[in-house]
Amino acid sequence: MKLETFLEQRGIEFKKDIHSTAYTAQALAHAEHVSGYMVAKPVIVKGRSEFTMCVLHAPDHLDLQRVARALDEVDVRLATESEMAELFPDCELGAEPPIGALFGMDTMMDSQLVEDAYLVMQAGTHTEAVTVRRDDWERACNPSVASIALC
Question: For residues 27 and 9, what is the distance between their CA atoms, to the nearest angstrom?
């Protein structure tokens, strides 16, 4: 299911933009003329048996040890490119929207995101972005919240 359809079905207002090609979350921020701290970046991790979508600000880095503790796992690892291609067949690799529920997986958000009014995110391609209210985004993906970013 496409992101727009997913949001529309849930009555979530969003603004869609077409921008120059952006392969990273920071490049998306530049293309959208916003701070990287407005861009929600997904990072997919795998524990013992399942994948989890971790969401943090574009400039931040994921702390795998913190994620493992938050998930009550001994260890977690980043998803491989081939796993990403399987998990997100309708998305360009690296342009996945940060809504795990859209793809049948849990979402964990970094605790710093709770301070944001709006989030900008890739919409499945490297040239489309969507802006949504952060509280609507939370309603769409029902994330757990933990301190998982290295700033």
Answer: 29
DSSP string, 87-105: H-TTS-TT---S-GGGGT-
Contact 139, 12 (CB under 8 A): yes
Q: Specify the DSSP element, H or E, that contains 64.
A: helix 64-70
Q: Assign 149 to helix, strand or coil.
A: strand
CATH of the domain at 60: 3.90.960.10
Residue closest to 65 by CA, chosen among 54, 76, 57? 76
Number of structural domains found in the chain: 1
DSSP letter for 10, please: T
Read off the amino acid at residue 20.
S
Model's pTM, two decimal places?
0.95
Question: Residue 105: is its pLDDT beyond 70?
Answer: yes
